[in-house]
């Protein structure tokens, strides 16, 4: 688990094809790996990866075909900047929200414009995940915990303040680029629990379900 608070920006050193998937070597930049060991998890642009080799400057991780299909990691090349975060511990301040590092799908940057001192970014997501994104709820974009400030169909908006832009890969985004999206884990489990409950009790909780649908937490699907 992670918090969605980016600890450092790193850079891809190598992306090596390995029998259909890839092996990434990442320069950690200022990321503190003092308490990280081989086998521990590190989030790379919001994707939970297992460090199979590491020292105080670099770590190596394998990226499976499934991860390549569901995320943007397969598009990384030597020199690509990445957001980094080590795994949450019981002593970690939860500055963002609970992030699993299991990406739900890709988003596409539609536009960005200045909004006072912040920049407002607009993303489009696939229909199958859009109903998990709620106004003033949490969403993870490339590993960064953000508040949703606007929704219009499959489109949602977030505001990036100067500090976040300076410290993350948001500073490199161009219109049309793809980002990793993870919806709020609570919304995912809530929908699944309600679906199972409705199946078992014949729909007795339909009023609660309708309330959640109207609030944008789930759908009829």
Describe the SSE topology:
Elements: E1 8-18, E2 21-27, E3 41-44, E4 47-50, E5 53-54, E6 58-63, H1 65-70, E7 81-86, E8 105-115, E9 118-125, H2 127-130, E10 138-141, E11 144-147, E12 150-152, E13 155-160, H3 162-167, E14 178-183, H4 185-201, H5 206-214
Antiparallel strand pairs: 1-2, 1-7, 2-6, 3-4, 3-7, 5-6, 8-9, 8-14, 9-13, 10-11, 10-14, 12-13
Describe the structure.
By secondary structure, the protein is α+β, with helices and mostly antiparallel strands. The protein has three domains: 8-86, Elongation Factor Tu (Ef-tu), domain 3 (Beta Barrel); 105-185, Elongation Factor Tu (Ef-tu), domain 3 (Beta Barrel), CATH 2.40.30.20; 186-221, no CATH class. It is 19% helix and 37% strand. The protein has five helices and 14 strands. It has helices spanning 65-70, 127-130, 162-167, 185-201, 206-214, and strands at residues 8-18, 21-27, 41-44, 47-50, 53-54, 58-63, 81-86, 105-115, 118-125, 138-141, 144-147, 150-152, 155-160, 178-183. The strands form two sheets. Strands 4-3-7-1-2-6-5 form a seven-stranded antiparallel β-sheet. Strands 11-10-14-8-9-13-12 form a seven-stranded antiparallel β-sheet. A hairpin with a 2-residue loop joins β12 and β13. The relative contact order is 0.17. The model has no long low-confidence stretch (mean pLDDT 91).
Q: Kindly report the CATH topology of the largest domain.
A: Elongation Factor Tu (Ef-tu), domain 3
Major sheet: size, sense and barrel closure? Answer: 7 strands, antiparallel
Helix content: 10-25%
Strand content: 35-45%
CATH architecture of the largest domain: Beta Barrel
Assembly annotation: single chain
Number of helices: 5
Low-confidence stretches: none
Number of strands: 14
Domain count: the total is 3
Termini separation comes to 28 Å
Radius of gyration, rounded?
18 Å
SSE order, as H and E? EEEEEEHEEEHEEEEHEHH
Strand order of the largest sheet: 4-3-7-1-2-6-5
Q: Globular, elongated, flat, extended or rod-shaped: what is the shape?
A: globular
